[in-house]
Amino acid sequence: MADKNYGNMNAHAIGFIMKEMVRRAIEAIRAQRFAFEVTAKEGHDGQMDDIFTSADKAAQEIYVKMITEAFPGYGIVAEEDHLRVEPHPDIGMYFTVDPLDGTKAFKRRQSHGIGTMIALVCGEEVIAAYVGDVMTREIYGFRPESDKVHRISEYGFGETLRIDPSVQLKDQHILLRERPENHSRCVRNLTALQNDGGFFQDFEIATGSVGVSTARLWKGEVGAVLLRPIYETPWDCAPVFGISQRLGFVMYEMNTKKGIWEPTPMTVYESTIPIPREHLIIHRSRVRELSRWLDIR
Question: How far apart are alpha carbons 264 and 180 in whole angstroms?
Fold first, then answer.
């Protein structure tokens, strides 16, 4: 990573500023928890079933202002097309920005599942990423040229996240984004109770921010995360994939025709693409345990 052109920045400065952007976005969102405006907007499927709030706008303005002022020549990829900025060819890096991850959870005034996320991408490599939990004020992420992922509390206390390989998957929960009945037969087998032949101890269902829910995997609260077929958006995938990879997680894709899980790279694209298959994220230290279970099915 040392040969990358950061312009007038270095790796440490980039990390400091990215964390500060997330911190400011968290506070801007929290300031509107009890009074905000909601506007309907078109979703990825063309239906007017998505929303945009004044809190999204406030956080978005923070990111755009700080990126354009502190990172001249860097690009921006965001959900709102008018925010897109192409990177200067000499730098070739861009930020993905999700100012409010879990907007519908925010509208419901949930006390969880509301996040804000940013990542720095060079080619197909996520070289820095931060995910902020709006309700706890915790920030998860890593700076460029660092092999460590930190969990930073609201009071500035930081700890290095590590996965304990001695904890087996069969003793952990798997985190889903919707009911097992809405998934393929292979997923239903995987998430069934162990007395019924399932693999995990149990399953849990998360709503709202995909970044905040995946943070439970990084902290070791769950052993796996299952992503349903939907749309892969760079502002969601870049921070989630980047932090997961840095911690040693790998991804498998369900081949429903063959009925098997196949390894697949955590690739980040600049544009939104459909995901026709289910994806499973587990730590590389637990691949052998999952493979043994699959072999005896």
Answer: 22
Residue 26 structural domain:
11-160
Q: Residue holding tokens 């709102």?
A: 80
The pTM of this model reads: 0.93
Which phi and psi (to 5°) does residue 214 adopt?
-70, -25
Please give the Cα distance from 87 to 100 (Å, whole number): 23
Asked whether residue 294 carries a pLDDT value surpassing 50, the answer given is yes
- What tokens does 79 get? 């959900």
In CATH, what number is assigned to the domain containing residue 275?
A: 3.40.190.80
Report d(CA 19, CA 140) in Å as an integer.
Answer: 9
Same domain, 15 and 156: yes
Q: pLDDT band for position 8 (50/70/90)?
A: confident
Rounded to whole angstroms, the Cα distance separating 231 from 92 reads 25
Helix (H) or strand (E) holding 287: helix 287-295
Tokens in use for 273?
């693409």
Count Cα atoms within 13 angstroms, Cβ side, for 228.
16
Enter the DSSP assignment of 219: T
Q: What is the mean pLDDT of residues 142-171?
A: 93
Contacts of 74 (CB under 8 A, 6+ apart): 7, 67, 85, 87, 88, 91, 93, 94, 95, 120
Rounded Cα distance between 43 and 31, Å, is 26
Residue 38 shares a structural domain with residue 152: yes
**What sign results for the dihedral spanned by CA atoms 52, 238, 116, 222?**
positive
Structural contact between residues 237 and 230, judged by C-beta atoms closer than 8 angstroms: no
Indicate whether 175 and 150 sit together in one domain: no
1 domain residue, yes or no: no
Residues 6 or more apart in contact with residue 165 via CB below 8 angstroms: 283, 285, 286
Angle (deg, nearest 10), helices 11-30 and 54-70: 160
